[in-house]
Automatic annotation (TrEMBL):
Main localization of the protein described in the UniProt heading: other
Domain Flagellar basal-body/hook protein C-terminal as annotated: residue spans: 216-260
Upper taxonomic lineage: Bacteria, Pseudomonadati, Pseudomonadota, Alphaproteobacteria, Hyphomicrobiales
Organism superkingdom: Bacteria
Name used for this protein in its record: Flagellar basal-body rod protein FlgG
Native species: Devosia nitrariae
Cell cycle found in the keyword field: no
Flagellar basal body rod protein N-terminal domain segment(s): 4-34
Family statement: Belongs to the flagella basal body rod proteins family.
Subcellular localization: Bacterial flagellum basal body
InterPro entries: Flag_bb_rod_N (IPR001444), Flagellar_basal_body_rod_CS (IPR019776), Flagellar_FlgE/F/G (IPR020013), Flg_bb/hook_C_dom (IPR010930), FlgE/F/G-like (IPR037925), FlgG_G_neg (IPR012834), LlgE_F_G-like_D1 (IPR053967)
Quaternary structure note: The basal body constitutes a major portion of the flagellar organelle and consists of four rings (L,P,S, and M) mounted on a central rod. The rod consists of about 26 subunits of FlgG in the distal portion, and FlgB, FlgC and FlgF are thought to build up the proximal portion of the rod with about 6 subunits each.
Amino acid sequence: MKALYIASTGMSAQERNVEVISNNIANMRTTGFKRQRAEFQDLLYQQVRRAGSQTSNEGTMLPAGLEIGSGVRTVATPRVMSQGSVVATERELDIAVRGEGLFIVEMPDGSTAYTRDGALERDDQGRLVNSSGYPIQPGITIPEDAVSVSISPDGLVEAYLGSDAAPTQLGQLQLARFVNKAGLASIGDNLFAETAASGEPQISLPDIDGTGDLLQAYLEQSNVNSVTEIADLIAAQRAYEMNARVISGADEMMRSANQMS
């Protein structure tokens, strides 16, 4: 009986949906995290009677066909790249992006990754790095005798060195934009990687061409909405239960047919 297979695809799809929702909820407090959503597509149809086929010698046609579906599948889990809330941290190396831009990160193997996580640190050489120790690009080094660090909305990094009365420019932060942000690949550690679907990065200074400006001593929070996720979780559970009932109903029908034979 096809109903067993069809309902099993529905249960599998909702199981994947619950996994996506649980990952969103688990990362509610992850800096710069972007929530995902599961998207579904129906499967192939068996054409028992095709719409428009001729029904008589006079040329009359079927106004509607007879199609039997095969179920559902999870086709994608795109990220929703909307802006998360921005909160003050009172820490001078915390930076939030207010716009579409992403920080550029140099990976240990020389490749480039991108992130919305602006919780930056200084390594043992004074370089500006992310929380995993990967340098932010273009590289900026903060001298050991820097008294305070200032980061302007357009990404200019300055610091007062020793007893200097005027600040010294240390470098200029840049941001990357992508034509299709949802096409970025998540590689963990709050990092994204470029893909063929995302397009090539468009590098520019902050506050130019929609990249967004920078807010020093602020961090962008996750864009996960707990109420929305709980509502989606309840809906997924109910859909799973309904598919399970279809399997139980189909089983009862098969049992009745066997008892009659």
